[in-house]
Amino acid sequence: MSSVSTVVFADLSGSTSLYESMGNERAAKTVMRLTQWIAEVMQAHQGRVVKMLGDGVLGIFASAHHAVAAAGELQRSHQIHLQRWPEVLRLEMHVGVASGEVLEVDGDAYGDAVNVASRLCERAGPGEIWTNDVTAVDAGVVPHVRFRKLGVFDIRGKAEAQLIYQAEWRDHESPEQQTMQAGLHSNVAPLDSLPGSIELTWKGDRLMLSSEDMPLHIGRSSAVQVSISDPRVSRMHARIDWSDGAFMLTDVSSFGTWVQFENSETAVPLRRSSCMLHGFGRLALGMPFDARAPTLDFRVTGGSMHLG
C-alpha cells in the first residue's frame, strides 16, 4: 500500500578501519550495538524501523516533524559518543531524510522517498543531515534544528535536479540562522560580526564573494557559481559555507577534493568531509595535485577566524 511518509536513512562510516583494528567479531558487535541504538531513537520518535542495512538503519515516519527531530537527536547524541569514545570507535554518522510516496510490501519499503533519502545520506558529510524540500517545509518548527538551503543537486534516479536543505542541529550555530517557514523562499546565511570575503580564480576566471553570498557551490554543472567543465569534476563537487566567522569547504563529490595552503608541502584530502579555508591556497578537484587535477586558487580575507 502506497502512502506519503518521511524516510530517514542513517548510515555509519569508518567501519573498515574498525574491523581492521578490532577484528571481525568485536567490530561486528560494536556496529550492531550502534545500529540498534539508532533504531531505538527512531522508535522513540514514533518511527518504524524497516530494516538494518549493515552499517545503516532505514526508518519510516508518518510525520516529517518527528523524522527531523529523530535525525537531530541522533546526530546530537552521537556527537557526545564521539567525544567520549576512544578514536577507534569514532564512526561518523550521515543522515538523509526525504518525504514522498512510499510503498510498503511484506515489511519492506520502496518508492521515491526511499531512494532520495538513500542518495541524500550518501551525499551528506559527517555529522550532517540532508533533506529534500518537501521535508523542510512539512517539518515545521523543530526544536534545536534549523534549515539551511544548500542549493539544487542532481539526484541519481530523479529526472530533474532537486532543491536540498541541511537540517542543522548544532547548538553553536549563529542564532540568526532561523528555521524558515512559508515555503522557505530565502537563502539562509549566518551573519557574523566580522564579515569576510573569498576570491577564487581558475582558468583565467576570477570571482570575488563576501560571507553574505554563501553558500557557494563548485562543480561541473552549469547551474553552480563556479562551473568547471572537466569529467573529473562531479556535477556538484564542493560547497563553501560561512560558519562561526570562517569559510568552511565541504567535499560532496564522488572522488574527493584536496586543499593545499600556502607554505605547506602537504595537501589536506577531503572525502565527504570539511576543513576551514584561511589565507592563500589551492584546491584540486577529483584527483590529487600531482595527477594534474583541475585546480582553483583561493584567497580569504576578513572574518573572526582569519589567519592571513
Relevant terms:
308 residues; Alpha-Beta Plaits; 2 domains; 38% strand; globular; disordered C terminus
Can you tell me about this structure?
There is one protein chain. The chain is α+β, with helices and mostly antiparallel strands and 308 residues long. The chain folds into two domains: 2-168, Alpha-Beta Plaits (2-Layer Sandwich); 196-302, Tumour Suppressor Smad4 (Sandwich), CATH 2.60.200.20. Helix content is 22%, strand content 38%. It contains five helices and 19 strands. The protein has helices spanning 15-22, 24-44, 64-84, 112-123, 133-138; strands spanning 2-13, 47-53, 56-61, 92-105, 108-110, 129-132, 146-153, 162-168, 196-202, 205-210, 216-219, 226-227, 238-243, 246-251, 257-261, 268-270, 274-277, 280-285, 295-302. The strands form three sheets. Strands 1, 2, 3, 4, 5, 6, 7 and 8 form an eight-stranded mixed β-sheet that branches. Strands 10-9-19-18-15-16 form a six-stranded antiparallel β-sheet, with no helix packed on it. A hairpin with an 8-residue loop joins strand 7 (146-153) and strand 8. Helix 1 (15-22) packs across helix 2 (24-44) and helix 2 packs antiparallel against helix 3 (64-84). The longest helix has 21 residues, at 24-44.
